[in-house]
Amino acid sequence: MSRIHTIGIPRGLMAYRDGILWKEFFGNLGFECLVSPKSDRDILDTGMRRAVDETCLPFKMYLGHVEWLIGKCDAVFVPRTAGYKKREKLCTRYESLPDLIRNIFRDEHIDILTVSYDWDMDTSEEKVFLELGEQLEKPKKEVKKAYAKAKKQQDAWLKNREKAQNETLQSSRIKVLLSGHPYVLHDTYMGGELAQIINNFGAEVLYSDCVNRESALKKSYDFSHVMPWLINREITGADLLLKKKADGIILLSAYPCGPDALVNDMLTRRIKGIPLLNLTLDAQSGTAGVETRIESFIDIIRYQKAGGYGNQN
Amino acid sequence: MKKKAYLGIDIGSISTKGVIINEKNEFLAECYLWTEGNPTQATQKVLRELEKQFDADAYRIAASGTTGSARKLVGSMIGAQVIKNEITAHAVGTTTLHPDVRTILEIGGQDSKIICVENGVAVDYAMNTLCAAGTGAFLSSQAHRLGVEVEEFGEIALKAKKAAPIAARCTVFAESDLVHKLQVGCPKEEIIAGLCKAVAGNYLNNVAKGKKIVSPVVFQGGVSKNAGVVRMFEEQLGMPVLVDEKGHLMGAFGIAILAKERQDEGEFSFDVAEMEFKTREITCGKCANHCEIICVYRDGMLIDSWGNRCDNGAVRQ
């Protein structure tokens, strides 16, 4: 492993949640990090050529990012993240990610840097990073320091986002909460397009992952004790915490997502007293359908606030 | 001095609708025809028809609006003051004529929607996804297969003693189901009644899933003209379903009212019916997104363009 100088990080899936921690950790240990560029049509098309039809859009996008990194780095970082707790797991994509990538890119013989953890193992985030550092042949003390520093850097990043969102909450404009997996919300070719459309209609965008993670996670247990997925817990908790502060919630999902299909249905039935829209993105190009749906939704909020259409005298 | 009138056009994938109303929301002219895949020509035909019915000596068009899937294109074509989605347009139109409405069911040519209304304003809605199962296009294709005009469907369905069970979740399944029923000698009217039942059932289980349907219910869109589907809705919902005589024009009516309320007057001339409009789709090559940009030309001059994700793709006029 000592021949590794540059570590590639695909800008997809959990990179949108934990990417800062990874990047800073590797950086603190003296490695170069190469993050693939923001998603665009080309990256998606590349990913789609690699993927089976039935898999989800974010995974197809991820494959495009992995392919972009081939030949540009010494190893691609593809962790196997299954969750740390029984009720805070991740979907099966993550539990099999390195195997999937290794097999899909079998002919390219790409070098994968990976680490694995599971909810039934007695482990912690720090232990996982120590293991990762050991693989990279760095002294334990140095790895510990690199992790602690990276954790601080990530915390600062998270705090900044929370702060920015709290400022948006003060706005007098209509505030729409985009609720979904971080890799759907912040991917330029998925949620990024939506945020643009919402802004164009004169409304502010709030994000479910710009809420304090620990508070959201805790709150989610009010909603369900048995729900097994970490990210859906963070989303649910954020929705509940922001329900009174936002003017409307868009449950944004990328097709097909198993956990979203279950949880968003529950949310639709149980979140009351705020306009709520279910929106599912797929690989279809063109935003006309999405635009109509968002425009209709913002109209509902706007005319309700105005008390009617002014057509009943 | 001429009195003010307002024009509303609703350009759907299958049909194009146009109305002109006065200050009191009364219809001065109306028209309904097939889009036939050409929204600009359909609009021009609608305008010519409206012009015939319109009393230009007594009225002048003070403002106009467009809605429906080609609203942007036609909006820039006629210089509309209001360009708005069909959910809002339908909600405004329907609540004007039926102020107490609580649920609006709508099945059009290629889409279907439900709008929930409280105190005269929409509070929730849902639209079908990409799949057009159970819409007007689905019924037309089945009518064709059965050798019956789709307009006759309702009447035939009402004559049936019972409805044959047909799966309407997917057009492909429905077709094979239908062929099977024909082959086992099921009477045509029962199959047609079955199709109507399937459309209503499919709608309630998909588009309206999870929505609370509260009376009074108004059903509109092209499919509302099918009495068979209306009856199936009434049976399945256990409540009366109202179909307005002008139900097919509700989107155009609603957008005309929005144009009126906007109080932002603009010039409009029926001359656009005689101008040449062309649209061109270009694929932008300036970045990896390859946006599809739509350019609209009037008599060879670029008047509008959209579809670019960023400024690099902006088409200069």
From TrEMBL, chain A:
The DUF2229 domain, residue ranges: 6-211
A family per Pfam: DUF2229
UniProt cross-references to InterPro entries, sorted A to Z: CoA_activase_DUF2229 (IPR018709), Dehydratase_Activator_Redct (IPR051805)
Gene3D superfamilies membership: 3.40.50.11900
Lineage top rank: taxon: Bacteria
Protein name: Acyl-CoA dehydratase activase-related protein
Organism of this sequence: Ruminococcus turbiniformis
Automatic annotation (TrEMBL), chain B:
CDD domains: ASKHA_NBD_O66634-like_rpt2
InterPro entries from the UniProt entry: ATPase_BadF, ATPase_NBD, CoA_E_activase_dom, Dehydratase_Activator_Redct
Alphabetized UniProt keyword annotations: Iron, Iron-sulfur, Metal-binding
Start and end residues of each ATPase BadF/BadG/BcrA/BcrD type domain: 7-259
Domain of life: Bacteria
Cofactor(s) demanded: [4Fe-4S] cluster
Coiled coil: none
Entry-linked PANTHER family: ACTIVATOR OF 2-HYDROXYACYL-COA-HYDRATASE (PTHR32329:SF7), BIFUNCTIONAL PROTEIN [INCLUDES 2-HYDROXYACYL-COA DEHYDRATASE (N-TER) AND ITS ACTIVATOR DOMAIN (C_TERM)-RELATED (PTHR32329)
The protein's name: Acyl-CoA dehydratase activase
